[in-house]
Write a structure and sequence with these properties.
Oligomer: single chain
Largest sheet: 4 strands, parallel
CATH superfamily of the largest domain: HUPs
CATH class of the largest domain: Alpha Beta
Strand content: 5-15%
Helix content: 40-55%
Mean pLDDT: 79
CATH topology of the largest domain: Rossmann fold
Order of helices and strands: HHHHEEEHEHEHEH
Shape: elongated
Number of domains: 2
Structural class: alpha/beta
Low-confidence stretches: 188-198
């Protein structure tokens, strides 16, 4: 029982729970004083709370996660794997260097690595630096791929892209001249609709 109480307290100490708690306290004060706007704030608080809990957020993201069929094994075609950037952490110590991929990018990094090992295809890392002082995502991913046994001659880099449009444009240039012409993409499923629109705009699909 104590474990569940502690977990519940952690949930309220964390920023999201703290914000909801503050809004509820403010609502109690507003209803006691019959302040105008209390019903509007109550509706906003309810929506904010619902969006912050897993059953609702998972239900909203599920259609995006399942909008595209996941290719299986031999069905994966293409002659180069393109790993789209998804964020990195600068200055974080790693056992073979500095900097790590962000949590949102870790899953697609693992998928791209598994594809590379299964198909022995070259892998193109597409992701650069957005703000001064940020880590260069492609350089971090290259270091990690080398430490995981991917040959350096199988790794290509687009280390200048800052968004999906540049991912598509710069990757296409590299593929046409170096890596290959028929790519297999590795984005996160929940962002595939937006990525697909950008890729179509750049004549990839």
């Amino acid at each position: 029982m104590l474990l569940y109480i502690i977990k519940w307290l952690y949930a309220w100490i964390l920023p999201m729970g703290g914000i909801v708690l503050a809004l509820i306290l403010l609502l109690c004060y507003m209803f006691r004083k019959h302040s105008p706007g209390r019903w509007a704030l109550a509706a906003i608080t309810a929506v904010f709370y619902l969006l912050s809990i897993e059953p609702v957020s998972n239900g909203l993201i599920h259609p995006l996660e399942t909008a595209y069929d996941q290719p299986q094994g031999a069905d994966v075609d293409g002659d180069v794997i393109i790993l789209l950037g998804g964020g990195s952490r600068a200055g974080v110590p790693d056992f073979d260097g500095t900097g790590q991929v962000g949590s949102a990018a870790a899953n697609r990094f693992l998928m791209a690595l598994r594809l590379q090992k299964a198909k022995d295809l070259p892998i193109l890392l597409s992701g650069g630096t957005i703000l001064k002082g940020d880590a260069n995502e492609s350089e971090i991913e290259k270091r990690m791929l080398l430490s995981l046994g991917v040959p350096e001659n199988k790794i290509f880099m687009d280390d200048k892209s800052r968004n999906t449009a540049e991912n598509a444009a710069f990757s296409r240039q590299i593929c046409e001249h170096q890596a290959g012409r028929s790519p297999s993409w590795s984005p996160a499923p929940s962002i595939c609709p937006g990525r697909s629109a950008s890729l179509r705009a750049k004549a990839w699909t």
